[in-house]
Request: fold
Amino acid sequence: MKQLFGTFGVRRVANTVLTPEFASKIAAAYGTKVQGTIAIGSDPRTSSEMIKHAVTAGLLSVGCDVVDLGMLPTPAVQYAVRKYYDGGIMVTASHNPPKYNGLKLLDSDGIGTPDDLEEEIEDIYFNDKQERVSWDKIGTAYKRDIIDEYIEEVIKRVDADKIRQANIKVVLDCGSGAACDTTPYIVRKLGCEITTINCQADGAFPGRNPEPTEDNLQDLISVVKATGADIGIAHDGDADRTICIDEKGQFVYGDKSFALVEKSMLEKNNGGTIVTTVATSNAIADIALENNGEIILTKVGDLVVARKLQEVDGLFGGEENGGLIFPDFVYGRDSGLATAMLLEILATTKKPLSTLIEELPTYYSQKRKIECPDDKKSEVAQGILDETTEYEVDTTDGVKIITDDGWVIIRPSGTEPIYRCFSEAKTEEKATELADWGMNLINKFI
Reply:
């Protein structure tokens, strides 16, 4: 069982557990297995530069060459690795609070490293098996700017002329994160009128917490209403998630924006395979059925979805949290292309975002979470399983309880000491009732 890695990479409190020594040792273990030229990037957290230097030193010490791509989104690093390099490390804690940082390790396809490789890396780490090279074989480090290329590749993948003709009014909230040097320029190059908030990179995240939840996006909602914008767009800290606000100032859950893009992709391609997780809305399956698509469900985690997309040559995939994956471009959640695709949908349909959302299959959802120590997570899961034997249960990831009225999934976070509880039903009342039941089950066994 892995001790360091979570759903995607390693995340810890910076300079307490995730010290330079820790980061360098992990990087050296990774470099021992991967070798070659490794690209590194980072989000703007106050600890990222320190950790990135430590990662560079660890990689150089085992003979890897290092390309520093600077501060940029995780999907831009994944794009660069897939096209040019042997592996990659993104220094980020994604949506976690500012005191955290982390390492997202990538394989040569730009996908998060698989479980078996992570187990080997942990073995090297804990048993000091790093293969340090002699003084004359230490790797070299240099810098490269990939941002302009990434932006142009995003724009190539949508009907830019149609978007430019639509005169779309956008409010963009990058959350002071890694998207500050990419998404504003993508939106502007697509001819939109843009208002920005929190679009100056700042590792203290002074404007809001990095996770793009409804509570954290109240400023964005207010500005959308005040400016009469067509859409509000927000990202998380490392810019692999995209959350929308409609023209009325209403928060749009990630599975609804997923469904919009899914529908567009299936229509363009006359069908295809869609990959998502067991925690995503039934609307995704409904839309696939209506548009000559096939749906495959996986465990939660974007790298799990990405690997399945690669395995089955899938068309499109993603998660309910606003993470959309376009496998012909990046094998990971991509905020830049997700933003461009949503703008293309507005331009093509010539309908308000709220209308497009209303046209989707109607489901109501609740998303909650509660603190739970990591060492209690297994005990809680077993207790919930024992308590729900009379129901249909799916244990692909956590415990998904399926009832006649809808479903609730209760699963431990792979990156934080919390349990998540998502519910979905055909009515708001039932969704709330299922979520309450799920939270009561968690509380019973914590």
